[in-house]
User: Fold this.
Amino acid sequence: MPNVPSPPDDPEGLRGSVTLSLSTRLADVAMAGTAVKAICTAAGLDEEGAGGMELAVVELLNNIVIHGHAKADGFKMQVEVDAQGEVVRLRIHDVGAPVPQSALTRTFGFDPADIEALPESGMGLMLVRASVDELDYRAGPDGNIMTLTKYLRPRA
Assistant:
């Protein structure tokens, strides 16, 4: 992964908004993850923060492709990356099936030290929540919007 430098006229890092338009194909998910990580790094997130945002967007886009559209190609997903001040926000929009409320509120219900007891699936949204500072989900007539927020510095 190439190192993306900050713009020379902005020592604070990249500022602005970028929108990625993707098809509901798993191949597009990896490309979006790579782009999000590079943008987050340029915006000033450290390796852990940028990697967490990459993990979150890949998990969510995979869920949209697999669960929201039953792996059907031809639908559109949009990822907006907005870097302003001390915060990076991702807004993911799709028109697939909404996320079940039970998936949004599920918690880790196992002993992570017991490798044999780890579930084989169903951990994606829990990993997303663990990777970001804030998560908001809205479903409506125009589709689903998942907003992920990561602060450049820890909040007091």
Q: What stands out?
A: DSSP finds four helices and five strands in the chain. Helices lie at 26-43, 47-68, 101-105, 124-131.
